[in-house]
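Troubleshooting: if your tokenizer reports a length mismatch, compare your output against this known-good record of 292 residues.
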Amino acid sequence: MDIEKLSDIEHLMIKLVYCKGIGIVGRWKIIKFCQQVETTALKVEEMIKIANIYQYQGVFRKSWSLLDNEKLKEELRKQKFVTFYSPNYPQALKPLPYPPMLLFYEGNLELLEMPAVSFVGARQATNYGKKVAWSFVSELVNHQYTIISGLAKGVDCASHAAAISAQGNTIGIIGCGLDTCYPKEAKDLFGKMKKEQLVLSEYPQKTPVRRDHFPMRNRIIAGLSQGTVVIEAKEKSGSLITAQQALEFGKEVFAVPGEILRGQSNGCHRLIQDGAKCVYRIEDILEELPSF
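Known-good structure output:
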């Protein structure tokens, strides 16, 4: 993307994304205010008030003052990205309450234009869970669906690998900068997907792995997908956050039943009790989704 051709509001978005002491809600409050008053020429104290920054006012002031425009441009020249206002920003994310302002990427951005199904589940997946993911993914790829997951251990990596093996397309969403591979076990898959598939993050390079980034990452997974398949999720699994977000976004949620003694799939069973569709064959998923 040509940085020089970005609008004033996009330049403001970029600086806010790099700024410390403010979260996604505060950033969007500032952007929406600027749209209303039709100017981006705000003082730092005005932004603090608009964004309702309390605890980290000092952090925000210092970070804002240190962010030099030339330094930001140099950072962005090293990365591929789209802004919320870019023509190729995914339309599926725009209705989210607080969508990513920027999406950094490596790979084929055109994969975002294809219908997609996400797969989430246990990091410590059993052979059963991995076989289910492999089976369902292979079938969905044959029906022209792109597979989305989070490049985590277990179900995530099995789903990405299955899509590639079936000569299909897959998108990985991560919760850190694209210069960081997490977990390290996914290094080969991560590198392959950045070259031949697509890996996305709303976080710029040098952003470390943080626990609170994963729920944010999960909303992108849910938002980009027409349906989410949950495999081997425990009662307090992060996969249930993705499933809940998918439901809130009006998307289909499919839960795969598992054995009941060890509790490995209790989260899936709870989803089924709460109204998610119980699936044990690929037809259970396909009949709820459009054909392509």
